[in-house]
Amino acid sequence: MDHSGHGMTMDLPPFTLGRGLEWSADPFFLVACLVGLALYGWGVVRLVRRGDKWPVGRTVAYVVGVLSLMLMMCTRLNDYGMVMFSVHMVQHMVISMVSPILILLGAPITLALRALPTAGRGRKGPRELLLMFLHSRYMRIVTHPAFTIPLFIASLYGLYFTPLFDTLMGSKAGHIAMMVHFLAVGLVFFWPIMGVDPGPHRPGYLMRMLELFAGMPFHAFFGIALMMASEPMVETFKNPPASLGIEALSDQNAAGGIAWAFSEIPSVLVLVALLFQWYASDQRQARRTDRAADRDGDKELEAYNAYLASLNAQGR
Fold this sequence. Notes:
By secondary structure, the protein is mainly alpha-helical. Helix content is 71%, strand content 1%.
């Protein structure tokens, strides 16, 4: 018996990690991930061939980020996620909070801007169009915290506590759209906070930390609400297949625990990345100051010393 027209059978055996990790590719995500990896690889190879360097760490972060997306959508975790709230919540949290962080650390936009050729005077090629998009009013809006933080929160409460979730889960297109939405929300939320790529909204490091912690408590509250509920709250998962051997409420409680845990783990990862970026930025600024001092003989220090000398002379 099919579930929601997805071709996934209702008689799935009880969930184990081994069964969940079996290959069962969603064609849309499989093609999208392979294309993403191929384009990134083309960019890196193009830079290397012309003698430019590209940090290995960025490549590793991007590849692992895309592979984490494939892990969620191209294995039987995706099948189990259609009938088990807990497995679905793992998908949601990884796709919206782990994959985006790793992809952003890979700096794909910076790579594209460096690898794509310029179109020439008066012409617009892919590089020019990308720059126009980055500087557009649309991007200024969707990366502003006044937009990203409410969107991040609404993706939990506005989805699971309304009939919208059941509607989306009722069709393959709806399910794919929901997963794409999770990824997009994660990207626009974390990009201004810890992304390496240039963007229209890039506040100071302290403000970035405040933006990060402004959204995370709502994840914890959402998880606690699911854990403390006395009855199943989402229609899709109210009657799990008997073959799974699970009870809907306990599965929902597990989903809540997963949502709560994921409000902490990515916060720590992003905070570490932010502190590292902050330190690296200070080091770069110090090196620029030293180079400027070497070029002009440290005129600023000489002027300050002259000022102190004049004060001392006046005091005699």
